[in-house]
Input
Amino acid sequence: MTPDIIFMWVPLITFGIFALRYSKMRVMQLAAWYAGLAIAVLVWHSLELPFAVTGSVILWIVYGFVTPRLNGIAYQAVIKRDYDTAQRYENWLGILIPVPEMRTHRALSTAFAMIQQGNVAEGLALLDSIAATDGKSAAIARSQAALMRSDYQQVADIAGSAAGEKNPSIRLLGIRALAELGRLDDAIEAYRQEEPKFRAMTSVPEQALTKASLYTHAGDTAAVLNLINGPLGSFPAAEQELLMARAQYFASGDWENFSAALHRLKDKTGGAMLHRIEHWLQRGPQPRPSLGPEGREKLDQLTREQSDTRAYFRHKVDKPRVAIGLIVINLIVFLLTTGMHGTFAFYGHETAIHQLFADYVDANSDWWQYFTNLGPLGIFIWPYTAEQGEWWRLLSATFLHYNYLHVGFNMLALTWFGIGIERRVGHWRFLTIYLLSGIGSMVAALINYQFGDQSQPVLALGASGSIFGVLGAVLALAILTYRRTRLFQARQDINGILIILLIQTGFDWMYLDGSSPLHISGLVSGFIITLIIAPRSATMPSIGGKPAENVIQSDVQPSDSH
Output
């Protein structure tokens, strides 16, 4: 696995994911920056300059992991209304991605910070100046400025324009504006029509806020409470309280209690929220929008999907001890079996190893160093394993690795996927899936030998089969859930795993001849094992031990006030 290939495959895939998450960024600007980095790395390698390997890996880590993480921290800070932290991390993003749109985006964050700190007039003036430019940030600035001024019709108009068509985040603002205008049926229909786009191109909090607006105007207090306990849990307590107060008002029509709640919340808030409270108090009692049977049914469907989504990601355990333990064990084993110069060594065995494996591998081949260094520790060798009865190698080989890239990428993959799966299925089930999938991948190696060229022995080592077993577990849970609920997140997981499998198979075919059967076998093993041992709660979304649909009907009944 050469460093230039590592850079060209993985970061370009990561770019696509990151570009979607960073929906306020101009994709072409981000693509141009990544293309420039890719060209620089290819030139670096073609000229055989020093530190090409290290440079490639560092760039991949920075743009594959650090940059999305900085973006995530900045976004969470915005949700918590901590704009100082958000701006600090966005400054780092501006250094790592020096494209024009980043400067405009930072100005947008500055405007929000001004408003939150009580400088509403200055913040609105900055929003207006950004709105006078072009790009995604300009359209968002126009929408947010109109929303701050409670000009809901203008927000709806912007969302219905070309700018709204290009930016799903603006469409969500437009749907919230329709609800404020009393056009609740239209708002629900608009959300249902474009829900797949929203799920793919906007953040979970953005979607949750829009749903909260729909539920609030429908007076569905139970659904609003579920959102507060779920994706809106990071929002400031005062904003959560305001959401519930509005929902209760639209459910009961009691303006006196709502007005009292608004006056109480004025002392706890500032910035945009205080501005909105003052507008509602000046506006007085609001007409309660009517909701027809068709709109009610669509809203109930959103509620069911919301409950299924929460159940799909529910944790059976909070601390992924097994996944972390496996990562530590793999790293310790690798360090103990690695010499000072990057080659494997287990001292004191050289003579015995030469005699032991001379009949299986040519001493002049590239594989000889792995025999002489890792053979005694448990590398899987066929037919030696069968002839010597050393079946323990089926498992021991899954904890041995070629080099630091091999173990590094495997442990990164285990971190990505293993921790989440362990939380969903539990410690012992996860350990069973991991170990049996690794053994299953080694079994595929001997099957490949039986139907292939038997003049050469089969060697196999590494945790890749186990990790593909974890991917198989993700696929199994997603398919079982999607069959019962048609949940969008489950379909995304299915598509994601199939794309990873397709890319890895192509990569194996081009650069890692003979690895595909092991990886596919690991995935199939994990898939089948998960079907057998997965807990019911992980495959049948439920709340409080009952199917989600029954809970919706019995415990989350919408208000009959409309």
The longest helix spans residues 52-79. Residues 321-534 form a domain with the Rhomboid-like fold fold (CATH 1.20.1540.10).
